[in-house]
Amino acid sequence: MTLNETFVALSDPTRRAILAQLVLGEATVSALAEPHRLAQPTISKHLKVLEQAGLIETRIDAQSRPRRLRPEGLKLIDDWLTPFRAQWERRLDRLEEFVEQQHDMESKK
Amino acid sequence: MTLNETFVALSDPTRRAILAQLVLGEATVSALAEPHRLAQPTISKHLKVLEQAGLIETRIDAQSRPRRLRPEGLKLIDDWLTPFRAQWERRLDRLEEFVEQQHDMESKK
DNA sequence: CAGCAATATTGCTATTGGGCAATATGAAGC
DNA sequence: GCTTCATATTGCCCAATAGCAATATTGCTG
Predict the structure, then answer these.
(1) What's the Cα-to-Cα distance from A105 to each of A27, A38, A98, A100, rounded to whole Å?
(2) Alpha carbon of residue A25 to chain centroid
(3) DSSP, res B67
(4) In sequence order, what DSSP letters do the residues of B3-44 get, joined into one string?
(5) CA gap A28, A22 in Å, rounded
(6) Which CATH number fits domain A3-108: 1.20.1740.10, 3.30.70.20, 1.10.10.10, 1.10.3210.10?
(7) R_g over Cα of chain A
């Protein structure tokens, strides 16, 4: 459940696709495997990584082990982004200022 | 400059540390190498990954090649987070609702 | 232009990580 | 109790990657 585990978990496209699937709701392992051309054990491995990172959780229903999203897990990432977000918003502000200035110039012509 | 490149770039702690350093402003390669117990070529390699992902850019100043942050590069990540953010905020809303309901119950005692 | 300073490139090694087939486990249904 | 279904675990291979030392490159500076 560390920041690093989370980023590592997200660095694989298959795992990101699995998360995207889970936004739509709970799904079994076989349902999660189906869209990818990957063997079941491969998917199980990915699921383990995601669970270890705190991004999904497992429920038990007879033989099946449906997974569901733990969106709060992504807060670590969101928080990490904060200082950077501040920066790109500042850039946007400067751009807006610039546009406004240009506009003023125009109207003074 | 793809989403995958970006996530891969962020999946290494050294590279994240470098980005964090660059929030404070432009820095030379040797300045970036200094805090880490890593050889200079190792850092240069990391910088290449970050630049390829569009997260930093290089300026040329005599022999030195100072890097600066390109915070907009992180928008890809921020955008990817959007659908998930919606989910964890909904959870928060439900929590608030619950707390309010409890509060109502209390006041009716 | 010689020599130094800052960085890039190259070539190598060791580790990690994604993939698979084969097998193990555990619950359901007959 | 035996079979079947869903999934986990194990053992293996190959490719990708972080790391380094050695060397190349580029631009000052004397």
Answers:
(1) 58, 60, 11, 9
(2) 15
(3) E
(4) HHHHHHHHTSHHHHHHHHHHHT--B-HHHHHTTTT--HHHHH
(5) 10
(6) 1.10.10.10
(7) 21
C-alpha distance from residue B85 to each of A22, B79, B92, B106 (Å): 13, 10, 11, 32
| For residue B24, pLDDT beyond 50 | yes
* A2-21 confidence digits (pLDDT tens): 999 999 999 999 999 999 99
| Strand D nucleotides where any atom sits below 7 Å of a protein CB | 5-11, 17-22, 26-28
Q: How many CA atoms lie within 13 A of A99 on its CB side?
A: 6
Chain A residue numbers touching B7 (CB-CB < 8 A): 7, 10-11, 16
Band of pLDDT at residue A38, cut at 50, 70 and 90: very high
- Å from the B27 CA to the D19 C1': 23
Alpha-carbon distance B30 to nearest alpha carbon in chain A (angstroms)? 23
pLDDT tens readout for residues B79-96:
999 999 999 887 666 666
Cβ(A47)–Cβ(A29) under 8 Å? yes
CA distances to A11, A23, B40 from A47, rounded to whole Å, are 14, 15, 37
Quick one: tokens of B68? 């600066």
Q: What is the mean predicted confidence (pLDDT) over A85-91?
A: 85
